[in-house]
Amino acid sequence: MAVKHRFFSLLILILILAGCNQNRAQDTSFETVDSARLLADIEFLASDELEGRFPGTEGNRIAREFIAERFHTLGLSMFGDTFEQPFSFTNRRTGVEFEDAINLIGYIEGSMHPERFIVVTAHYDHLGIQDGEIFNGADDNASGTGGLMAAARYFSHNQPQSSILFVAFDAEEQGLQGAHYFVENPPVDLDSIVLNVNMDMISTNFDDELYAVGTYHYPFLKPLVEEATSEASIDVLFGYDNADAPQDWTMSSDHGPFHLKGIPFIYFGVEDHPHYHQPSDTFENINPDFYVAAVETIIGVIRHFDQNIEHIIELSER
After folding, report:
1. What residue numbers bound the domain in which 50 lies?
2. Which terminal residue of the chain, N or C, has fewer Cβ atoms less than 10 Å from its own Cβ?
3. For 259-305, how does the pLDDT look when each residue is reduced to its tens digit (9 = 90+)?
4. Angle at CA 134, nearest 5°, toward 130 and 135?
5. Is 295 domain-assigned?
6. Is a pLDDT exceeding 50 seen at residue 115?
7. Structural domain total, the chain
8. Is residue 49 part of a domain?
9. For residue 75, is it within any domain?
10. Domain holding 204: CATH number?
11. Cβ count within 10 A of residue 273
12. Which of 27-36, 46-55, 223-232 has the lowest mean pLDDT?
């Protein structure tokens, strides 16, 4: 009887473990992107109500509170008691002083390597109102901000192995000010940051082409990007990251300050288009199907980076 009892106990344990494994499989099948939510987010962030999200304005504040509320809803952790990282700066070109710029920072702790960080970034500011016209900044960069929140949503349901910081930068259009402040005043040890994934202008391309920039400087990242995007529904291209290229995007967005600190980066973005820094950069002029596919692709790359974090650390020699 004792043997039979142990047999049935073992059988029950196996069935329980099988059920747990099935639940884990269901977790990993969680939809990568809620396309309706993603499109609603970019539409709101690029709406006239937010008046172009210029630093220090009411529209910028509304955008910031919208992002912070999403971070809270998703259960992201804070450093201290707020997602906000306030800073001030003077625009060197115009001499204008900004006293109330604010980055937003939330994080998800890793299950295996909580002491290591991937930093996922996008700037939420834009150009505001000029000559009476609203520069809505749908592609630049409501799109990246929407992608940032979508990535936070995905990893809040699928805990990463390493910790992930999600950072919405302010004042990118004023000279990457938010990113510069962040790397000089990081909430974690700078040496614990393994790499940066930056999103800026990822929704407006009608050739289904998304660029992954940075592999010229950090070539060990290229095979990982290729592996992660081998079955993507859009074309992921490389380039625009060296002095011999037609354009060098190495310092063109918030990944630049990370690069200056020797932190590897991949920047996802599209080529310039007629709506770039124009009042016509509106929700109506993005490519919704491409945008959803781009965000799905980027999340897949972040996931693959997380799964290969030891390899990245070894090759980065940091």
Report:
1. 35-316
2. N
3. 999 999 999 999 999 999 999 999 999 999 999 999 999 999 999 99
4. 85
5. yes
6. yes
7. 1
8. yes
9. yes
10. 3.40.630.10
11. 17
12. 27-36
How far apart are the C-alpha atoms of 203 and 228, rounded to whole Å? 20
3 found inside a domain = no
Structure tokens, 236? 């992921």
The pTM of the full predicted model, rounded to 2 decimals, is 0.91
Q: How confident is the model at residue 30 (pLDDT cuts 50, 70, 90)?
A: low
Six token digits for residue 112: 């295996």
